[in-house]
Design brief:
Layout: H1 4-8, H2 14-39, H3 43-66, H4 77-103, H5 111-134, H6 141-154, H7 158-171, H8 176-188, H9 192-205, H10 210-222, H11 226-239, H12 244-256, H13 260-273, H14 278-290, H15 294-307, H16 312-324, H17 328-344, H18 350-362
Helix pairs in contact: 2-3, 2-4, 2-5, 6-7, 7-8, 8-9, 9-10, 10-11, 10-12, 11-12, 12-13, 13-14, 14-15, 15-16, 16-17, 17-18
């Protein structure tokens, strides 16, 4: 005769546990395993089942989020494998005890109860995932592809970086950073139209992205669309008035339109916002030289040399300015300095050194460059 206690026990079968795992992640199956343990009088086993159920579910979600799984992969395979594994684990852990209790008169709960338990666990886990993703606690697949693209781009593997940006954008169409960085990748490949299209997309989703205005402006300038370039630099300056590179690039565009006074003024603003800005000094010095303002050109080259005494280009340009002023001694000294610097970096400055040598010959002050 069976006892009343044994008659009241209801134990889930391994098949029902596997079904709950399929419907509600490993946690769904773990809950039924835990209920079985409680009814078998093993509360420690029940607690361990719940802990392991959460851990297995977290691991499964992590793999799904972080691994770049192809879109063509049949996603139902993953919960099916999890269900099969949980079914087997249940047989291994509880199979003998379940068979013994059923022989003593224990019954099996409704399959609907097992399914409902699995579904409730699935809803719980889905809610946790959604809240976590919205809170930024978990990086979804788009971020995974983006991080990989950035890594590849930093190593110079531009083509593969673009493919990963493609995947990130396919999964998150509003991914501003992915559009912006893919634009930079297209710039590196010389694909100006694609670069502009991606900057357009980035700015459509975030009109405050100042650097996208700068980069698109540079791309427009490459295409000869100077007015559009200036408009983009204006937009960048309106949003960040202290951005030196915006003034610098606008100066170049203004120079392309022959607006020399405004060009010089913008180089001045670039330097004001970034003291020691070498490219701005170079360009302004060149403009001054073209305008015959030799003293101002020399002053800009002086500043460059003060910041970098090995700047061969600055010495060469200053030598030309001194020559134009009729200051032959200083011109010769600057050209000879170019040769001295070039000897310390053979190859990289050979062209500049040859030009300096030509100037010295013209001034009857030959200093052979090896």
């Amino acid at each position: 005769m069976t006892s009343r206690v044994t008659e009241a026990v209801k134990l889930y079968t391994p098949r029902q546990v596997g079904m709950a795992a399929f419907l509600g992640t490993p946690l769904g199956g773990a809950v039924l395993i835990a209920l079985n343990y409680v009814r078998l009088g093993n509360r420690k086993g029940a607690r361990m089942a719940i802990v392991l159920g959460f851990a297995a579910t977290a691991a499964l979600i992590g793999l799904a989020l972080w691994l770049p799984i192809p879109k063509s992969f049949p996603h139902a395979v993953i919960p099916m494998l999890a269900a099969w594994a949980i079914w087997g684990i249940t047989e291994w852990l509880q199979g003998a005890a379940l068979a013994a209790r059923r022989a003593e008169g224990a019954t099996t709960p409704s399959t609907w109860a097992a399914a409902a338990t699995g579904l409730l666990c699935g809803v719980l886990i889905a809610g946790i995932v959604v809240v976590s993703a919205l809170s930024g606690w978990l990086a979804g697949p788009a971020e995974r592809y983006y991080d990989r693209a950035v890594e590849l781009q930093s190593r110079g593997d531009v083509d593969r970086a673009i493919s990963y940006y493609d995947s990130a954008i396919a999964r998150k169409g509003t991914f501003v950073e992915a559009y912006y960085n893919r634009a930079l990748a297209y710039e590196a490949k010389g694909l100006v139209d694609r670069e502009i299209a991606d900057d357009d997309s980035a700015l459509a989703h975030d009109p405050t992205l100042v650097l996208a205005y700068i980069n698109r402006g540079i791309a427009y300038r490459k295409k000869g669309l100077i007015d559009r370039a200036i408009a983009d630099y204006d937009s960048a300056i309106a949003r960040q008035p202290d951005l030196a590179m915006a003034y610098y690039n606008r100066a170049i565009a203004l120079g392309a339109k022959g607006l020399i006074e405004r060009e010089i003024a913008d180089y001045g603003l670039a330097i004001a916002h970034r003291p020691g800005y070498p490219d701005a000094y170079y360009n302004r010095g060149h403009v001054y030289a073209e305008e015959g303002q030799w003293d101002r050109a020399i002053a800009d080259y002086d500043t460059l040399i003060a910041h970098n005494s090995k700047d061969a280009g600055a010495y060469y340009n200053r030598g030309l300015a001194h020559e134009q002023q009729g200051d032959t001694a200083r011109a010769i000294a600057d050209f000879k300095t170019v040769l001295s610097i070039a000897r310390l970096a053979p190859g990289s400055l050979s062209d500049l050194a040859q030009r300096a040598e030509q100037q010295l010959r013209a001034l009857n002050a030959v200093s052979p460059f090896p």
